Amino acid sequence: MPGLIVQGLRKCKVKNPLFLFDEIDKLVNSKYSGDPAAALLEVLDPEQNNAFSDHYLNIPFDLSNVLFIATANSLDTIPGPLLDRMEVIEIQGYTFEEKLYIAKKYLIPKQVLAHGLERHHIHLSDDTILHLAEGYTRESGVRNLERTIASVVRAKCVQLAELKESEQEASYDGQVSVKDVQQILGAMRMPGYGKLYLTGSLGNVLQESAQIAFTWLKANAFVLGLTKDPKEKLAEEDDIHIHIPHGSVPKDGPSAGKDEHLHTGQK
Questions:
Q1: What single string gives the DSSP state of each residue in 159-217?
Q2: Residues annotated as region Disordered (predicted)?
Q3: CA dist list (Å): 189 to 141, 211, 214, 264
Q4: What is the pTM of this model?
Q5: What CATH number is associated with residue 69?
Q6: How far apart are CA 217 and CA 242, in angstroms?
């Protein structure tokens, strides 16, 4: 079959279409055979694309009238020669007000429907949504915000199902407060350098127990579903702070390891 470029031209039936290469930074680092970056050099170079050659048809095509737009999350992974052939336009991420609107208009209704709930079964106030966006996600888009909202919706699904099973559905409250979010998702993420801080007059054994719990989580992060790739490091850009209240009271002992690793491992 002809390549995707020629197939796109045939589908458009014009010589001057607009082609969009989405997330080109991932394409050039893909694990597939071949060198897509080298192929794109000819496509995007104005000095060469007037006689682009499709290897299947072996016939030159004029791509000089085609407008190519590529998107990327990072410029760091795009090869220099390919980047030199592009005009880079940096676009700012969504503001928190825009994320609030997107969440209310699209993300929450989508997740409510996907989890089999009715719209009246769950209500997130503006403060709660902003708390999710500011405290649990750090991104220019809304992809992680949607995942976080999905986690909250799933928790409410479980709550409603349990109340139905015990015939106490009438006591269900669909309102999700900031306090509810903290109970569901755990403590807010703290930007940092992957360090573990321990406070509260902890003895050596208790500190070592926390360090072991943190190390074990990092070693098993992919198996536990805390990371999406075996090579991804857990909490590489976040710090974890464990404080045990009543700081003036000395505490020690090996018994809190399970609680500590469950807490530090919350997604």
A1: HHHHHHHTT-GGG---EE-HHHHHHHH-SPPEESSS-EEEESSB-HHHHHHHHHHHHHH
A2: 239-267
A3: 17, 18, 15, 10
A4: 0.59
A5: 3.40.50.300
A6: 15
| DSSP annotation of 120 | G
In degrees and rounded to multiples of 5, residue 92 shows phi and psi of -70, 150
Give the full edge-to-edge strand order of the sheet including 190-191.
Answer: 190-191, 238-243, 196-199
Q: How many domains does the chain have?
A: 3
Q: pLDDT tens digits for 182-204?
A: 888 876 666 677 788 888 888 88
In a shared domain, residues 62 and 110: no
Per-10-residue mean pLDDT, the chain, length 267:
77 88 76 69 82 73 87 85 89 91 96 92 93 85 92 93 90 90 76 78 84 85 78 76 72 64 53
CATH code of residue 173: 1.10.8.60
